[in-house]
Here is the input.
Amino acid sequence: MSSTAQQHQQQQYRGVSAPGHQSSDGRESMIKVSLRGPAILNNPRFNKGSAFTREERDQFGLRGRLPYAVDSLDDQVARAYQQYKSRESDLLKNSFLQSLKSQNWTLFYALLSKHLVEMFPVVYTPTEADAIADYSHLFRRSEGLYLSPPEVEKMEEDFLDACEGRELDLIVVSDAEAILGIGDQGSGGIGISSAKAVIYTLAAGVDPAKALAVTLDVGTNNDDLLKDDLYLGYREKRVRGQKYDDFVDKFVGLVKKHQPNCLLHFEDFGVTNAQRLLARYRDQLSIFNDDIQGTGAVTLAALQAAIAVTETKLADQKIIIYGSGSAGLGIARQLRDAIILEAGGDNDGDKKKMSSKEAASKFWLIDQHGLIKKSLGKDKIRDEIEDEFIRQEDEWGSEEESGLLDVVKKVKPTILIGTSTHAGAFTEEVVKEMAKNVDRPIIFPLSNPTKKCEARPEDLNKWTDGKALMATGSPFDPVDIPGQDKKKYIVAECNNALIYPGLGLGAILSRASKMTDSMIVAGSKRLSELAPSSQQNDPDASLLPDFGDAPEVNFEIALAVIEAALKDGVATEKEMPEDAEERKKWAKEKSWAPVYSEYEYDAEGMK
Here is the structure.
């Protein structure tokens, strides 16, 4: 990163000499700020623009630098929304929002909060993917910490420079190998780290001043980027092997050394690295991988709501997962762990009633080679797939057909999950075969984007005579329910943003030393309880809450995660109340909200 970019980044977190006390609405009663004139106007953390009061304009030398009128935050949001709507494409709207974020954090988050459902696809997926793909051409200024192998010896210095004066709650890091379905994006990975941090603030009230976006720019295998004269990243093929591991290990070591109480969120790492890095570090500090654990957690929540409709247990299911990349394997592992915990009893001392191998026997994983079975040979089974998920010769012979339809016919599954990006893979024949053997088939075509979905809900609904319990990875319109003219089936969207901010917030507030399986399962269970199908006791209602309720939902998830952290003995926050109701009030008071604080100029701080 250039020294100019570093100075800009540092300035966002300096200039506060005496922070005030935060109230329950996120407002700090009074903040003493030592920035003045252009310095405060160019600082997105403290800039209020036209909302600076008369008194503040006098104190901070802003009278002649601003138009005469004093706006409220609502006035500014209305103006910004008009400007947003004037942009003709989603990519231009994304660019506008990024520009606004670099000017005024409070206004940026207030605008997004008011129009959350409308703007989420623009500030995150799918539009953010287009912005990341064009990152080097759209670049304006630094938005995080960029770390590359040629400067590995200076990594600690750069890390400390980015964190100066701050105790972080959250670090989001990506090596950009598997970005949002568009693959390797090199240094553009900072965009996904930054976007995830934004969602933590929007949906969980994480203070943006206590969050850091990081990209581990270890090169790229994207030839288009390597040939691009304007590409801003490390212009080499991706670092692999021990050199890669040492680089990541040094970064994680710095987090442990200098920011030991923060949550480290891993995002969009490639399939060969994601699971093994999670396994390596998850017991060393509070770490979370959204592609693996977040996808698994939100899917588990939707399944728990669906299973409640069928009045069965998770351990009773036969589960086919079509597509065994990071998402599919993450779901399988999360469901397996939930089955084990479900069978283990309520007390920590209870002996688990089901082994990991027995729980894994409930799953049939399928990839491009068909059913993952021992007879495929090691060259066709990826190393990250555990042996317990591999079907043995005595149950599935090497000559036996093992395509999706074949597996459905033999297994008679109760649950069918798609994470393959194979559009239309859940055919009418496959779905009708499944529906022969189960009264309420649970079918989740989760692949994104919509054009890669394994089946459309209206088709699933038709092929099962309206009996399918559905969730998708992209938003779909409600579908008709046979025999009910006015009522429609609301298709749940398995949007990770319904759960990962709450999981993270629970870990942050409790200062959890690690993110345990039971913390994630507790969050999933709470999310399933908040689903309309559960709340309304209606089998045809949605299996997940509406995304517009994400902030309230994630707060409830966080409370459940804190309870689990306390039970697991990993919560280290000393000031957290013991009483549940007092703890809820305490957690609410910790939430950051986009409201303007009052400022007082501190001349002493300039010395």
